[in-house]
Amino acid sequence: TAAKEYEEALEIYRNLAENNPQTYLPYVAIALNNLAVLHNNQNEYETAAKEYREALEIRRNLAKDNPQTYLPYVATTLNNLATLHDIQNEYETAAKEYEEALEIRRNLAKDNPQAYLPRVAATLNNLAILHDNQKEYETAAKEYEEALEIYRNLAVNNPQAYLPDVAMALNNLAVLHNNQKEYETGAKEYEEALEIRRNLAKDNPQAYLPDVALTLNNLAVLHNNQNESEKATKEYEEALAIYRNLYEEMPNVYAPDLAMTLINLATFYQKALPEREKSLAFVMEAIALLRPILEAVPFTQKYMKSALTVLRRWSLSDEEIERLIAEKMMETGENQA
Fold first, then answer.
1. Quick one: pLDDT at residue 3?
2. Cβ atoms < 10 Å from Cβ of 312
């Protein structure tokens, strides 16, 4: 396995570094970083954190003698550690690591903006997401706006590389403005992000159609909040059509997104434009998608809670809900057979 190969490489580099640290300590740090990324992806956060910290210590020491070569690696390791601590809800630690990474990258960008400005923008975006989640909206907005400005400037000379980042930054800002009930500002940002993503999807639908669907879904939520039901309906339905097609091609990947959109539509036809049959049809389809993946994809459990909430709001008893689910699972089972 990859883990065994990385561990074997690490052991070899450690032994070599005993006699020749100057040559081989950088390789020890690379092997530790690779192992940490792998353990992080496997949700083995404690192990990953130890590996990142050791890699960081080695790189800090190397950077004392050769800052030009090793400071970029210090920043990368800090960014990786911050992402891990963010996932573990250790927000204060994550913020400090992001801020140190940002400071290093800002300094590097003074001498080499082409190489390091994209990394400055990425770190600003990560910090903004963290502050956004902590409801520090003013700080988050400033960070998102600076990241957006950097990406816009980079996209002037290299639109192919940086327009996706412009769209991402616009989308993130729009989510923040929507949460603050600044609907007009949010709508403009979503609409610009949507236009960019539609254009990108013309040349590369596989890469960008999921982003088109996500932006449509977000816009629909915003228009629903503004009681613009007609706009919201069109956007939800287009998002749903895209996710259905993506699900046909890659069911394991897109089942959660399809289910989320179905639940949004079920809620929409419960609250905004009450139509019981439509709402129930959408929510039951979502439940059928979610049931088989709840354990394998834990974050879908919150979608299931939302789906059950929709059913209860239609005044269905627990017995009626169980019967409906059993009937639906039998029906989908028969269809798959």
1. 87
2. 12
Structure tokens at 191: 């609409």
What six digits make up the tokens of 13? 């580099």
- How far apart are the C-alpha atoms of 60 and 68, rounded to whole Å? 12
* Token pair in block for residue 185: 């500002």
The closest alpha carbon to 304, from 334, 319, 283, belongs to 283
Burial of 316 from C-beta contacts in 10 A (0-12 / 13-18 / 19+): middle
pLDDT for the residue 337: 36
**Host H or E run for residue 85:** helix 67-87
Using an 8 Å Cβ cutoff, are 136 and 161 in contact? no
Contact between 90 and 134 under an 8 Å Cβ cutoff? The reply is no
In contact, 200 and 207? CB cutoff 8 Å: yes
Q: Kindly report the CA angle at 9 between 59 and 115, in degrees rounded to 5?
A: 40
**CA 255/CA 289 separation, integer angstroms:** 6
Residue range 169-192: mean pLDDT, rounded: 96
Could you tell me the pLDDT band of residue 1, with boundaries at 50, 70 and 90?
confident
